[in-house]
Amino acid sequence: MKLHTINTGFFKLDGGAMFGVVPKVIWQKTNPADANNLCTWAMRCLLIEEGNQLILVDTGIGNKQDEKFFSHYYLHGNDSMEKSLAQLGFSTGDITDVFLTHLHFDHVGGAVVRDGEQLKPAFSNATYWSNEKHWQWAVEPNAREKASFLKENILPLQESGRLKFVAEQENIAWQKDINISFAYGHTDAMMLPKINYKGHTIVYMADLLPSVGHLPLPYVMAYDMFPLKTLTEKQAFLAEAVENNYILYLEHDPVNECCTLQHTEKGIRVADTFNLSDI
Ligand SMILES: [Zn+2]
């Protein structure tokens, strides 16, 4: 197996919303905000080469929305899905499987592209993976989460006939050396791939832990549907991670790709940060 970081660029989100109840005077020390109170976040996807499969985990925000939509998110940086794949000698048509941790626009936006008047899957030969519970949650969204579940990101995948569901069962074996964990606090039935790689377990954290800045337990995003559930899920996961020396792969951390954890007097905190290519 080979793993590759796929950078798709940076966006900005309100710092207060990203840190929930934590006051700005505290979070701004590690995540400085701009004049509009926005902080920069990565949209860092993951590519898994395994046998004949080329599996992409999440897809970034994509490029099909209108100017007004993008004006809220201040996309920046030189990376895109196509460029990052090309640097590895791949194109979108080579991807065999697209695994969607959940269907918020910054994770699934890149899965669908505009082709004239039509919307079509961006990865023309891929099977798309979600789970039934999350899919239902996304296509009939609650009013609070509706702005994150955009129909144009989601419905064309189903219409293409290439959508499949992972069975919702904790730590289910999905592919060779890839198991899936489920989390329910950020949104219903978000999926976290756990990958056996070079003798390590690498966990793609999605929005259970967006960045190292979110390690302290009360640092839960205001975007989360069930913040206390996130808190207990994070607590249990961090204990499991430190116990088993997991490597955490961070989708949204603007600087750090990966980290390991250790116990400290303050609780579980970062031990090391490094890039995936250093493993
Ligand atoms: Zn999310």
TrEMBL record:
Q: Which UniProt keywords apply?
A: Hydrolase, Metal-binding, Zinc
A Pfam family that this protein carries is Lactamase_B
Write down the Gene3D superfamilies for this protein, in alphabetical order: Ribonuclease Z/Hydroxyacylglutathione hydrolase-like
- Transmembrane as a keyword? no
Write down the superkingdom of origin.
Bacteria
Q: Which GO terms describe its molecular function?
A: hydrolase activity; metal ion binding
**Coiled-coil ranges from the UniProt annotation:** none
Q: Which InterPro entries match?
A: MBL_superfamily_lactonases (IPR051013), Metallo-B-lactamas (IPR001279), RibonucZ/Hydroxyglut_hydro (IPR036866)
* Residues that span the membrane, as ranges: none
Q: In what residue span(s) does the Metallo-beta-lactamase domain sit? A: 42-252
Q: Keyword Secreted: yes or no?
A: no
UniProt lists the family membership as follows: Belongs to the metallo-beta-lactamase superfamily.
This chain belongs to the protein called Glyoxylase, beta-lactamase superfamily II
Question: What is the species listed in this Swiss-Prot or TrEMBL entry?
Answer: Pedobacter soli
